[in-house]
Amino acid sequence: MTEEPGEERSSTDLPEAPEHLDHTWDEARQAAFDAATPIPAGPVPLNLALGRTLDQDIVALQDMPHYASSAMDGWAVNGTGPWILAEPGTRLAPHQASPIVTGGLIPPGAKAVLRSESALLGKDDDGLPVLMTGGSARPGEPRNGQHIRKAGEEALAGDILVKAGAELNPAHLAVAALAGYDELQVQGKPLVRLLLTGGEVIGQGVPDPGQVRDTFGPQLPAVVGMLGGIAGGQQRIGDSYGEWLAALEDVVPEAPDAPDLPADVVITTGGTGRSGTDHLRQAVAELGGRLVIDGIAMRPGHPAVLAELPDGRFVLGLPGNPLAAMMALCTVGAPLLAALGHGRLPEIHEVPCGSAIEPDPGRTRLMPFRLLYGMASPAQHTGPGMMRGLASAAGVMVVPPHGVQFGEPVPAFALPWGPPIPAVPETAGKAKPRNTARPGRTAGKAASSGPVDWSALLG
Question: For a surface tag, which of 233, 240, 291, 443 has the fewest beta carbons within 10 Å of its beta carbon?
Answer without folding.
Answer: 443
